[in-house]
Amino acid sequence: MNQASGTSLIDLQNISKTYDSGTQALQSVSTSIAQGSFVSLLGPSGCGKSTLLRIIASLVQPTTGTVSWPSTGGVRPADIGFVFQDATLMPWASVLDNVYLPFKLQGRALKDVAPQIMDALARVGLADFAKSFPRELSGGMKMRVSIARALVTRPPVLLMDEPFAALDEFTREKLDDDLLALWQAENWTVIFVTHSVYESVYLSERVLVMGARPGRILHDMKIDEPHPRSRAFRATAAYGQRCAEISDALRHDAGAV
Amino acid sequence: MENSRFLRILVPTLVGIAFLLIWEMLVRVKGVPEFVLPAPSRIWESLVLNFGSLMFSLWITLRVTLSAFVLAVIGGVGLAILFSQSRLIEGALFPYAVVLQVTPVVSIAPLILIWVGYDNVEIALLIIAWIVAFFPILSNTTLGLRSADHNLRDLFRLYGASRWQILSELLLPSAMPYMLAGMKISGGLALIGAVVAEFVAGSGTSTGLAWRIIEAGNRLDIPKMFAALLLLSALGIAIFFALTWAEHRLLRRWHESALKRES
Questions:
Q1: Residue A257 reports pLDDT greater than 60
Q2: pTM (2 d.p.)
Q3: Closest of A78, A38, A9, A4 to residue A186, by C-alpha
Q4: Domain extents for chain A?
Q5: Is the pLDDT of residue B203 over 80?
Q6: Residues B254, A133: C-beta atoms closer than 8 Å
Q7: Does the domain formed by A1-80+156-226+250-257 have CATH 3.40.1110.10?
Q8: Chain B CB contacts of A83 below 8 Å
Q9: Which ipTM score applies to this complex?
């Protein structure tokens, strides 16, 4: 539904990445990500999906090719939300201070942004834990703090690098649902890296299936089932069929290697 | 809880009292001469008798130890921060810090005394104690500054953090547990350095506790020797507990090492 707008937020042109060790992580990847869409990068370990995400975030420079952001004059917006596989919180800082970090680094005073911080915490369901320290929280709660930190500045795009992979299945499904609800409410663009076929089909409007050695996009699949999706979606035939198609595509590539 | 407190405090205290009682009894029953081993009661007497001069010496040793420690923290942390900003500087200087550390300080001490001069003995003591104390802080802080989570580093870069912000908001807090561990080692080493330096300096204007021990030994005033030794131990213990307490206060809310676990 969000994809209806159709304008492109990020254009990737002919991206390749070869590391100094000689490993070719990515080979001529080209695609564009539409404003407001939910896109998953799916593939086995070593297919370069995390590298691609880091190139989009400009944490890694591509060897060749360009990333451009047409809607913001070509350059990456200063505000970008990034969620790692681990919660990546500062253990010495309270939940509040962790979520305050993006503002703090912009030089903004805590008292000016406190309402936004509390709002972000409320949106991930942690309003009562502002004064807690990371070690006092469960794995799922830490991940929520990490998401609150990523969305507190209301960035136009949220990049997520296998964010829920280390969590148990119940927590992961709950966070998947919460993420979908937030995405629908906020009109973000989400790029979600995962190695779970089921998670990618459940969440996304579009799945980019990637293959390894060298990393490249094998298939660009639309999951044109309506949002909002609920757990009932996981029991539908359409869901099962999508998962099977993607699994086959991945298996076919693995067999060819 | 109760049980662990009992084990931690009461039991060692009881052992100590029993040890002193047996010592006192043996010395009295066997009639051991005082210049071989004085009874605890005699050591106490000597401590009371020489209280003024021993306290003055304690103050000298304490002053040298604490100044050397504070300067070691400033020098060690400062140099480690410099290293964290430039691999080139680290590569250029670190080997010399190691040389300074591995050369036995007793062997450099006479040279330092000659350079600084016997009219500035306290400064010489300070330099010697500093050399001994600063290395653990330098090496631990250097390690700590390098141990920051690389994903957090990426996050800071993503938000456009400045060099100073990365240092103050990320590297220094990450290094804190390492730095404090280094300080705990250095606190004890500063005292050892001060004592060794006094031994080497011998006489002159230095009148710290170590010098009192030598002086009392020369006069065969063994109870006074023990009294000075007692004060030195007390000083060492006080430094250790003060630093342990500081470490606990600073880390208790977040670091593994300071957490209490239910078992």
A1: no
A2: 0.83
A3: A38
A4: 1-80+156-226+250-257, 89-154
A5: no
A6: yes
A7: no
A8: none
A9: 0.87
